[in-house]
Write a structure and sequence with these properties.
The structure holds two protein chains of two kinds. By secondary structure, chain A is α+β, with helices and mostly antiparallel strands. In chain A, about 25% of the residues lie in helices and about 25% in strands. Chain A has a six-stranded antiparallel β-barrel with strand order 1-4-7-6-5-14. The longest helix of chain A is centred in the N-terminal third of the chain and has 33 residues. Classes of the chains: A alpha+beta, B mainly alpha. Chains A and B meet through helix 1 and helix 2 of A and helix 1, helix 3 and helix 4 of B.
Amino acid sequence: MMHVRRTPPPRATPRSRSRRVLGAALGATAVVAVLGSTGAVHLDPVRDAAASALGPLERALGPGEDALSRASAEQARLTARLAAAEREAATGQQLGALLADPALAGARLVTGRVVAVGSSGPSGPERVTIDVGSRDGVEPDRTVVAAGGLVGRVVSVTAWTADVLVVGSPDLVVGVRVGTAGVLGEAAAAPAPGGPRPQPGLLSLSLVERGSMTRGDAVTTLGSVGGRPFVPGIRVGTVRSADSTSGRLAPVGTLEPAVEAATLDVVAVVLGEERTGPRPIVTGTG
Amino acid sequence: MALALAVVRGLALLAAALLVVALGARRISPAPDLLLVLVVAWALTRGPVAGAAAGLAAGWLLDLAPPGATILGLTAFAYAAAGALAGRARCEGPVTAYRVGLVALMAAVVVQGAVAARALATNAEVDLLHLGLGGLLTTMVAAVFVPILVRADRGLFSRRYG
């Protein structure tokens, strides 16, 4: 009978074991870094646990309270109070200017403030979030105005906030009237076919019919059915340049918006009232 | 004994991490990277694997100690690379301050390079003077303290294994 002697499998040396452990730790770190950076997994519980464990130690080692820190704290409190008072005064001023706009006389408004500004497009912010929502009566496709004029239109609404597509966004085209004659046109961020490319911060303006416009002409909203998305007569801006020699039937130009989206603060949403009855029939007197 | 040594090293890393954060809170900046000094010391005693492990632990501590890092794990990687690099320079016999300084400088370049690379990737501004001064301070502190730490570590190691 033959005895086969089996050789035992090679035992892992402490060195190769520690290499394996290190490799696993590095792999786990890589997984955490990738998942964390892509946002696929929220690692807040890990951070919270670390903060709970290390926070008290950091507090113990941190700079204690002394005369300098007390003075700094007092200064911070006073600065915050001053900022709050200044903000209140500025809000009141902006709100006063907004409500005094003749184009909004008699309109039902709900005022709010910009609380978030979305990613910037080629010529400034394209969407902002305001702190009024459906609970305040705001609905999609409502006009949003500021003290200077038109801000944009509401595109989505939650209970307490609303997202606004601002003038200057590539997705927003506004029907307008230009000058005292009220020539019809449209304002957009994209250049009109054959027209000049607007510089950053300006809009392109193209008339839809024969007519004239000159630098400095006021541009107001044309208005939409039921005041949605735009109520008529809101200032959009002023004509910056006009070009009637571009080979188009109607002149094209550029428009300087009345409201700078980057510095928006107090705004108002025009709630409007939809017409429920027919217009009265009138008789000519000629 | 091995467990006790690991606990002592862990506590030393924890103390260094807390000290680094506390120095920042006292607006002492740039400050020497005390964690990197410890990592270099252990890497020079034990080699690249132990150096990378110590670096990984040190980086994780910095990633997690409040206020923590934006992306967890990246600092850990940078310190692990620095520890592995420093471990390649392990030698028998006494460790000279010159050698330590050179190794610490290379490790600091790895760590600060990772910081600069991350800033460049996010289009943030890189303060090269601040990074350079931090690296230089780390090198100087390492040149003074690492030979002492290496001697202490070797003493503990020889007592353990005879």
